[in-house]
Amino acid sequence: MDDRALDRDVEGLLTMPIEWDASARQLHLRNDQVSYLIRVLEDGSIGQLHFGAPLADGRSYRHLGRAGFQGFTNRLDDPIALEYPTAGGGDFRMPALVVEQADGSSSLRLEYASHRIFPGKASIDGLPSTYAESAGEATSVEIELVDRPSGVQVALSYTIFRDAPIVARHVRIRNGGSARLRVTTAMSASLDLPDDAWTLVQLSGAWARERHVTDRRLAPGRQSTASLRGASGHEHDPSLILRRPTTTETSGEAYGLSLVYSGNFLAEAEVGLYGTTRARLGINPEGFAWTLEPGADFNTPEAVLAWSNDGLDGLSAAYHGLYRERLARGSWRDRPRPVLINNWEGTYFAFDEQKLVDIATVARDLGIELFVLDDGWFGARDDDTSSLGDWVVDRRKLPNGIDGLGRRIEDLGMRFGLWIEPEMVSEKSQLFAAHPDWAIGVAGRPRTESRQQLVLDLSRPEIVDHLFTVISEVLASAPISYVKWDMNRNITEPASLALPAERQGEFFHRYILGLYDLYGRLTGAFPEILFESCAGGGGRFDPGMLAYAPQAWTSDDTDAIERLRIQWGASLLYPTSSMGAHVSAVPNHQTGRRTPIATRAAVAFFGVFGYELDATSLSGAERAEVADQVAFYKDHRELVQRGRFVRLRSPFEGDGNETAWMSVSDDRRQAVVGFYQTLTRPNPGVNRLRLRELDPSARYRITLWPARADTVERDNALVRGGDELTEVGLFLDVDRHEVANHGDYWAQLFILRAE
Ligand code: GLA
Questions:
Q1: 374 CB less than 6 Å from ligand 1?
Q2: How far, in Å, CA of 298 to CA of 289, rounded?
Q3: According to CATH, where is 2.60.40.1180 located in the chain?
Q4: How confident is the model over 516-534, as pLDDT tens digits?
Q5: Which residues are part of the catalytic machinery?
Q6: First to last CA, the chain
Q7: pTM, 2 dp
Q8: Which of 15, 379, 392, 452 has a C-alpha 20 to 30 A away from that of 305?
Q9: Hey, what CATH topology would domain 648-754 get?
């Protein structure tokens, strides 16, 4: 029996998702949507043959790749496509792996040793990753490579998911030699593409304007985004998307590389001298060095690679499904998320028990389900200058403790949630007085402060243990159903007092491993608590966090118009079920803008919905509107939290004045369409909004939210076919003067139900 037959037999399937062709020495990872083809080259290195459209199984594709790096003309710089390139051997493009050896050199040449195909997917020690719930959902292969002179052993792991155009990769590096090694670059994935006609799409911005879509055509040389902050950061998402310059939302090729990691990352593309493109994604090599004693392992984070020929929409749909259902986990993964009210913008630090209960009482009457107490409940924290680290209730504000408040909230018939920022310490705190050495810093150097706070050294297990104990005590002390886990500053003077000099390059990654350990232990100990991650809004909104907290505070910017761009950008990779989105007061605290409350809700509906204001100060008319909004969201939350999110009109295209998107249920019987116009224009032109993902043969009854007694309602509130809604669209140009009179910041939802 040849290997291929054996593998088929082991799997018991006729068509293997991973096929080993022993004579071509080729591995073919395949499903209906994608093929990933690699092969052992003549020199033993692993060549990349193809990642993209599905190719027939049972065939050899060895002719797609070159013979091997050494085995042809011996010309350096040959643009051969490699799975895990190393430095020093004539490939002068970006390496995926650099290991300093005992003699100080770092040349490596990895050769195939063996491989193992298995059903399902393995987890990665200490790191979050996507998973399979049954063996049939995914198939994996681990390829062992070795560099004999140094003893470096590398295991390349790949998983193909049965129902998605996705391959997840990670790498384990082992010191199989007898001398100490230093890993200075260890990418999670490297991808070689045979041409350079690509546009790099990145999600970039800053605090309060995270994840804006930014495009650039690839040029010769390297182009990258990265973080050195100790967190993935507000500045760039830890991902890299390549699309054809002609690729649109709905057509054309696109690749996604997304890193399941929350720390320093590098996402880089290089166009080489023969016009090929190499992309790499992983831990940022800058400042990184990991010592491997003989026998020791290092695991890279996971990179999730996707390919689509259906434009960015195809890519997004693949990531949304996987990240919502096979990266997020826990009891809240599939449950409808509660409508919450958070007191932060309503009170900031100035509250007492009665004030909070008053807000909650109004909120309860309006249908809101969860009350979240934000910053300021502990120590003596009347502003942001003190008390982080002292997770003991401030009885001046809450004389009956967290428990007393929590019970009163529960007695109202609501659930109760709490804000924490466990990774931090204020210099003015009992924790800092007791353990000044627990704050990250370098002996003999002043520590740079940010928001008057320092970061605890989570690379030290005793500090993680302490945090687990004190936070567990808080969470067990009261009826807490939800936690907002914040992180409000980046790391400076990066170093750990607990690491020897030669291991300081491990600090940033060890911090993240400590963070994941803490998150894993707390979410494991409190499985019924819904965790929402936060970092000054979207400063650590990444797939790594999503593995612990199924939702995240998308941005501190609650302005509806700004949120259009932030939520649109985030939706390239992240599902709506991961995006916290709240209605706040006007003038907006971040922009001073005054938008109608209906518009604020119409934007926030396309996320995990809530409020961020003092409900007691709402007028009677506003209360009626809020009650209507909450009822609307509850009626549609299953659809928006779990349905297919489809982007229709981009705020990043043209003058960005209009945005439109929709959510469609899996059975395509229901949809909600959101249309938003930032500034009104007099005498506007013809405007039709064509929808997608509807059932062409279904007839949909259309209603409008908010309802309007005007021609927009009259001409759209009809029963219309899925076909004509797709081909002709909704009418936004019914009466041009009337549309102009909707004024600035107009939002209109259209609700479709199949008859
Ligand atoms: C960060 C968060 C906010 C709020 C404050 C509290 O900025 O993003 O939502 O919790 O901290 O200090």
A1: yes
A2: 11
A3: 648-754
A4: 999 999 999 999 999 999 9
A5: 486, 556
A6: 56
A7: 0.97
A8: 15
A9: Immunoglobulin-like (2.60.40)
